[in-house]
Design goal:
Layout lengths: L3 H5 L9 E2 L10 H15 L7 H18 L6 E4 L2 H11 L7 E5 L8 H4 L7 E5 L8 H7 L4 E7 L11 H11 L2 E5 L18 E5 L11 E5 L47 H17 L1 H21 L3 E3 L11 E6 L4 H10 L2 E2 L1 E3 L2 E5 L6 H22 L1
Parallel strand pairs: 1-11, 3-4, 3-5, 5-6, 6-7
Antiparallel strand pairs: 2-8, 7-8, 9-10, 10-13, 12-13
Helix pairs in contact: 2-8, 3-8, 9-11, 10-11
């Protein structure tokens, strides 16, 4: 297990607030901030040069990104956000008029609107009906038709942390010859993943949440098996390998690499790339299984408290198979917005999502953070009940 005290020293926010909101946006660690600051100072003095260090960092990102996704380096590319990879799937997969795309009716919009754009091409987009905010394999099985060509789901649901049965659903897609696409932003960096085992064709994750990077950074995955089948919807001058030679740019015969990096778009945001390189190395060094164990152990304390409290009720799945680093709960007989506001007043940062308070525990949180949250929830419940008298 990692040293939580050493980790917290890298996150100055821990001295001022309790932050359980990286499922929205994660904090930037001091070393990542310092890298960006240094890069901007160099740029200010017109000293950037040929940016060879940026391209070296990109190679590290693809290598460590493969460890995050459970994939090969050749299957990983740098993207600017989750939507980048979802668009690559939506407009790159070989679909034709009359084909069907299946989504769940509880998806985050980033995994909806790119697919809805296909309706203009005569491709049908249908939604699988969820049950109490969950999608199980039986729901998926019932929704599949002879026209279904794509199934695109979130690995971990944004509002309740529900982790789908990726093994079972991936196998289902294999049997029905369906392209399986994953929005992984709420799992990348905190939950182990294995794209090849799960039969995933394309996956994507922004890095501004659990991967501790800045907005404008992310990863996407395209399986080696899919690479020649993706109809690349765009071209970039940096989708070919220049080998950092910028003195001869009229070479128009360069070929894209036999890797997912062929789908990347330049020019790259250098400062963000350098910081993202550090953040990925940091997370891989700690180990994602260790991070998951730490996060789940913290949430166990909250589960025990909510289960024993008459006013609060968990709205996430407690099934070990479907748990993640997100836990959501609501309040019966109380306005959950008032509870959320009370937490904010006490500098305990959570999110309000779909009628529940969402708690996202990550590697910089400790038991003292969770104890403060529980103490505040207790006080908020008592305050609400007293106000009714």
């Amino acid at each position: 297990m990692f040293d939580i005290n050493e980790i917290r020293r890298l996150f100055p926010h821990t001295k001022k607030k309790v932050y359980f909101n990286c499922a929205s946006t994660g904090p930037l660690p001091d070393p990542a901030y310092a890298i960006q600051e240094k890069y901007y100072r160099i740029a200010k003095m017109a000293d950037v040069g040929n940016q060879s260090e940026v391209f070296s960092a990109l190679e590290n990102i693809r290598r460590n990104g493969a460890k995050v996704f459970g994939a090969k380096k050749s299957e990983i590319g740098f993207g600017f956000n989750t939507t980048f990879g979802i668009n690559l799937a939506a407009f790159g997969l070989p679909l034709k008029r009359g084909d069907e795309v299946l989504l769940s009716d509880i998806e985050f919009p980033a995994n909806v609107y790119p697919w809805l754009g296909l309706r203009e091409r005569g491709i049908r987009v249908n939604f699988i009906k969820s049950t109490d905010g969950f999608i199980d394999i039986e729901d998926v099985q019932k929704a599949i038709t002879k026209k279904t060509r794509v199934l695109s789901l979130s690995y971990v649901q944004y509002f309740n942390g529900y982790k789908i049965d990726v093994d079972g659903i991936g196998d289902l897609c294999r049997r029905h010859n369906i392209y399986f696409v994953l929005d992984c932003i709420q799992g990348a960096g905190c939950e182990p993943m294995n794209m090849r085992k799960w039969n995933v064709a394309v996956a994507s994750a922004g890095a501004q949440k659990w991967l501790l990077s800045s907005q404008g950074t992310g990863l996407f995955y395209v399986s080696d098996d899919m690479r020649e089948r993706i109809q690349t919807p765009w071209r970039s001058w940096l989708s070919v390998d220049w080998k950092c030679r910028w003195d001869d740019l009229r070479r128009y015969n360069l070929e894209p690499p036999h890797a997912a990096s062929r789908y990347e778009l330049g020019t790259y945001p250098g400062s963000l790339v350098m910081a993202f390189d550090w953040a990925l190395g940091f997370i891989i060094g700690l180990g994602i299984p260790a991070i998951q164990k730490h996060n789940h152990a913290l949430l166990d304390s909250l589960i025990a408290y909510v289960n024993d409290h008459p006013a609060y009720r968990i709205t996430s799945s407690r099934n070990k198979k479907h748990r993640s680093s997100i836990l959501s709960f609501t309040a019966d007989g109380m306005d959950i917005r008032n509870i959320h506001a009370e937490l904010q007043r006490r500098k305990i940062i959570t999110s309000l999502r779909e009628g529940s308070i969402r708690v996202a525990a990550h590697l910089y949180n400790n038991q003292a953070d969770m104890d403060r949250l529980i103490e505040a929830l207790d006080a908020a419940a008592k305050k609400t009940r007293a106000g009714r008298r």
